Hints:
two-stranded antiparallel ribbon; Heat Shock Protein 90; 7 strands; 3 domains; 56% helix; Helix Hairpins; elongated; 5-stranded mixed sheet
Amino acid sequence: MDRAPGPSVRLKLTLSYAGLLMVAGVLLLAxxxxxxxxxxxxxxxxxxxxxxxxxGRSLFVPNRSDLLRAFxxxxxxVLLFLLLFSLLGGWILAGSMLAxxxxxxxxxxxxxxxxxxxxxxxxxxxxxxRELADAFDTMLARLExxxxxxxxxxxxxxxxxxxxxxxxxxxxxxxRSDPGHGNGELVERLRLVNTRAIxxxxxxxxxxxANQRSFARERVDLSLAAEEATETMLPxxxxxxxxxxxxxxxxxxxGSHALLLQMTMNLVHNAIVHNLPxxxxxxxxxxxxxxxxxxxxxxxxxxLPPQMAATLVEPFQRGTGRTHTDQAGVGLGLAIVKxxxxxxxxxxxxxxxxxxxxxxxxxxxxxxxDTGR
Length: 373
């Protein structure tokens, strides 16, 4: 945006310093006038010498006019020197004070040009400029991490979307090269591949919706969402031989009922399909702690190292050795859960269980008490 040119901040500070110093000098001279010169009379009368006294040197006593004539040029010279000194000193002082802002401005321009790896790293004691520089460095670090995450996400999404399209292309090429071959098996395989592509697209759209926070907010009881998700996933649990137990207290938060239900469904779904081959178990609990509500989903399964558990919230990360061949999802389950939790100002915590499996806990701000209005 074009703006009209104006004086720089350094010039404004210089003029401010000079003006303040000049005002202080004038006030000081005014004090000298009030408390010194005003008591000197305009006319001084000297008594004549006594008769018969020995003559001596003549006595000169300056009056107010004499003092003003002697004082005024010196005052003018001092004020001119004070003006020049204040302008030069103010310019240097303003430049020294604004030097940190110059570094921050340079870092801002580098970030605007795409260089997010630059850091100010301002030295010195903690003052306002140091706090501003540290806050800017923190923002750059988060932007760089977010940019890297978005690049990885775009690359992974492109790869995941390319896979079903490549399979579809291969199947169509086979059908075209062998027209006499039966199409029943081919159609079924195309249907499965197309279903996977649709599921992946819907998951990406849901993830985008959660990141944009474009939803209406209402009171949502996570305990009811847990019961609904459990009932919905019960056939899948029976197919995998997994038992589900739901318990806990009423846990009311504020947010989107559809998104929070989808979050709970994803947690229960992951807990079922990433479980033991047989006799697995899933525990879904809700509760209230201070000013937050907690939804926790635990499951049995293979032992996971802590470093692997931390990466499971990354998009398209499924965990080696934990994914079944069917109903394994598209690799966005926990990524969607994390986005929904963060969109509701909550947190997601993954903790490996000692006996194997995983505990996933979502903490959301508790809803204020319902006054009935």
